[in-house]
Amino acid sequence: MTANSTVRNILFIMCDQLRRDYLGCYGHPRIRTPHIDALAGRGTRFTRCYVQAPVCGPSRMSTYTGRYVASHGATWNFVPLSVETPTLGDYLQKAGLRTAVVGKTHVVPNLGGMARLNIDPASAQGARLAQGGFEPYARHDGVITDAWLKRKPNAYNDYLRKSGYDAVNAWHEFAASGVDETGRVQSAWKLRNSRLKARVEERHSETAWSTDRAMDFIREQGDNPWCLHLSYIKPHWPYIAPAPYHDMYSEKDVAAPMRVDAEKVDAHPVYQAFRDHAESRAFSRNEVRNSVIPSYMGLISQVDDHIGRLTRFLEDAGRLKDTLIVFTSDHGDLLGDHWLGEKEMFYEPSVGVPLIMVDPSASKGGTWIHPSWKRSIYSLLSSTRLGSLKTISGWKASLSCRGCCGDAPPLREAAFSELDYAFYPARSALGLGPNEARAEMVCTERWKLILYAGFPPQLFDLRSDPAELRDLGRDPAFAPVRAELLERLTGWHAARRNRCHMADREVDAWLAHRTEPGGVEIGEW
Amino acid sequence: MTANSTVRNILFIMCDQLRRDYLGCYGHPRIRTPHIDALAGRGTRFTRCYVQAPVCGPSRMSTYTGRYVASHGATWNFVPLSVETPTLGDYLQKAGLRTAVVGKTHVVPNLGGMARLNIDPASAQGARLAQGGFEPYARHDGVITDAWLKRKPNAYNDYLRKSGYDAVNAWHEFAASGVDETGRVQSAWKLRNSRLKARVEERHSETAWSTDRAMDFIREQGDNPWCLHLSYIKPHWPYIAPAPYHDMYSEKDVAAPMRVDAEKVDAHPVYQAFRDHAESRAFSRNEVRNSVIPSYMGLISQVDDHIGRLTRFLEDAGRLKDTLIVFTSDHGDLLGDHWLGEKEMFYEPSVGVPLIMVDPSASKGGTWIHPSWKRSIYSLLSSTRLGSLKTISGWKASLSCRGCCGDAPPLREAAFSELDYAFYPARSALGLGPNEARAEMVCTERWKLILYAGFPPQLFDLRSDPAELRDLGRDPAFAPVRAELLERLTGWHAARRNRCHMADREVDAWLAHRTEPGGVEIGEW
């Protein structure tokens, strides 16, 4: 790698449900992630990257479209993405990069929109739209129930069946199941079974298979430029790891949960409703955490080993010198912190993600962003406006001068994120209609305000209370802080871009046109 | 008309730039509008209807799509409308109503979206999308410059040429021009020429032609159900009326402007920038008002006469008894009030419009809204949540139980409107970028707050100051009022629906599905 490197390819790695603090380079005291740590060492590690929504689908749609959730409208996992909205794939393919996905995207096409536009979902056009602009080199959206499998083929399930795993739903029965002490096959849907060894061989596991497919793609491309979205499904549930990762960690490696009994007293109604969810009740028990977290950590170390394998492969292929590597996650995992499971809520372990970028051309003093990737990369970068910059001093300038649409946005002072919880039992418990279950977060260097439609806000002082154990949302002493943050949120609402079908240069042209000779003469005497 | 009438058709009349208080039934002391007043007498007159944007394009797109501007994204006149967004035409055509437009829609299709979706703009599909769902029975978007005429055919211009008006741009040279005392042809682009008689014969004028086309359409339909959007271009500028309307009114009929010198002292920066526009400087002069306003009034009385003619036609054809009539406007006209011309600003003469509905089935105790028109009619109705109801007591219940998407929205307590002023000289004067020129209004029974991104707000007390002459936006005494209105605005932002590609019933189905046997089991031990 020389100072003259030119970036031609993008390897965009996304983990699923990987929380920010479960990597060595983000300070986890026990986990072993040497290869990801090495990426961070060579590149830039953003310490405070936030996702635009702490839920798979909307977070991913924000990354793929470069828009906030309120703009792309795919507010939850199975809410369709507009077929008219350009994605990362559109931008990059136009620029000559073959742009493909291995793994998960969660893109659900808007069949209603296709019908209105007379686009046959079975046509080449329809198929392209169904992929959100990515060529589905080896797509899947995670482990499947038997019912879903009947509706939709699944590349990884097919692979397992061809590799000798004999079951219709081989993914579930081998990769997501284990054998207990009595010799019975047990599904990892039950958290009690997370501690078991997955029935799949490591070399046939989701992570290994995805990495192999990534190498196939890169090999196939030769010297032709590409963007590969390598989208690992792990460490997302069902939490179960193949050998040797299933017992790499044990109870003694499980960090104490960030939770105090005081959180249950006079609790915020929405927080309380989420705490009543099955997964929250489960993860409130140490027995559950001790079964799940060692597997969760094993799955992360497994991803790390495959990233090491992939890095060596890139080096051997001569691709390290011309490939921008981005590593991130779509959201975190609460794992029992705050007496909660899953994600959704805006606590740091849920809404905070790792973000690492390795740019082989960075030694030239700046970081290369493919012009066509502006909007999408911007959605990553803009979600990091709090990003403390570890290594490359050129980043700041780079962020300022190469942002969205050719403009020069400054590094932002606040992060925003959105939640549509209409799809959760919490909504029923609170008696809310399908359009009343909304929440938004604004987070600055020090403060985090969460606004719930119809309920009081939550407020946390991240400086004095980094674990977010003390909700100041209803404390009269903090009314001025809340007012200031509310103003930021309102300013963000007011400034959100919605003029999506006209470029800024056209706006300027119209403004110039107003006074053009022979044009419309408004208000002339 | 009997109590057993069933509504089968919709006549949706929209004027362009007709301010609310320039009709007899809305209290104008001099104007003669007996036929529109008669509609109000038979139907429901909404006293405080507000448009979602005080600019033609975005206001119309809100009406046609049933969405606020932030949702449909067509924030100004020539900003394309998403091709994926269903419109009134989609809903009604699906329900078997032939849905057509005579006159203006201002729909600009998203050619970029069509390109992405491989839709040829010249195809039948492309043509349909270019019309926003309306069959273009006799569409035009208003008087045209010579340059525009070369790009796009124009039905009314063609008609004039066929009727013997000999000029390439016959619309401009005959219908929008007059002959001065020296015998010279003068364009009504210049406000000094508004006082002249238009060179077109009344029976060939825009308003007469549009009414004739409306009758043709209705006649053609016979007993088949229809929705006709009769979209008069008048009284929009160029302000010039044919005989006998050109001298029906004179200076003595011109109401005194609502403006005081105090408005110029310590003026709000955005207001000041709009006051510096050419049209504002012009309308600040009484000479201009006295030339323009008599013609403006004449054009309104002309529309009124044709509505009378159309009403008689409907009666003769037996259509009055089964046709819902809606009469409104896309925004108003400042005409020198507050030292301003045009619209854009959120003063009542600009953002307030008339709305009258005549429902022949209303005597049954309620008002009929075609189920397929829910979203669009709702955009009209929801913009009237302040509507005092004049005649039909059933309206309130009707509004509550037949609103958008089958829900039961209550009558609202506040109206909201939006402005993207990136396209105006005011933006340049203020040194703003193309995405920084934003304003929003929230208006309650008593108060109107206008928020400008990057500037202080404006506040008016409509109870003590109905003419909006005293801006309380920076008065410390009114900080609590502003805070309360800001909270409403924030609540509206947070609650704006953006999950547009999934119906509420599907959301409920997903919520039910979560706990379905054999489904995904999250967080089970």
Commentary on this structure:
Two copies of one chain form a homodimer. The first copy, chain A, has helices spanning 34-42, 56-65, 69-72, 88-94, 111-116, 124-130, 146-151, 155-162, 170-175, 206-221, 269-275, 278-283, 286-316, 348-351, 374-382, 394-401, 425-430, 479-495, 504-513; strands at 9-15, 44-50, 98-103, 135-139, 177-179, 185-187, 226-231, 323-329, 352-358, 415-420, 438-443, 447-452, 458-461. With 525 residues, chain A is α/β, with parallel strands linked by helices. Chain A is globular and about 90 Å long. In chain A, 56% of the residues are buried. At the A-B interface, helix 3, helix 5, helix 12, helix 17 and helix 18 of A face helix 3, helix 5, helix 12, helix 17 and helix 18 of B.
Which segments of chain A are poorly predicted (pLDDT under 50) over 5 or more consecutive residues?
364-376, 378-411
> How far apart are the termini of chain A?
68 Å
Task: Indicate the percent of residues in helices of chain A.
Answer: 25-40%
Main beta sheet strand tally, sense and closure of chain A: 7 strands, mixed
Assembly type of the chains comes to homodimer
Average pLDDT rating of chain A:
86
Strands of the widest sheet of chain A, in order across it, are: 2-9-8-1-7-3-4
- Most residues in contact, chain pair and counts: A-B, 89 and 90 residues
Number of strands of chain A: 13
Number of helical segments with 4 or more residues of chain A: 19
Query: What general outline of chain A do the C-alpha atoms trace?
Result: globular
Structural class of chain A: alpha/beta
Q: Mind telling me the C-alpha Rg of chain A?
A: 23 Å
Approximately how much beta-strand content do the residues of chain A carry? 5-15%
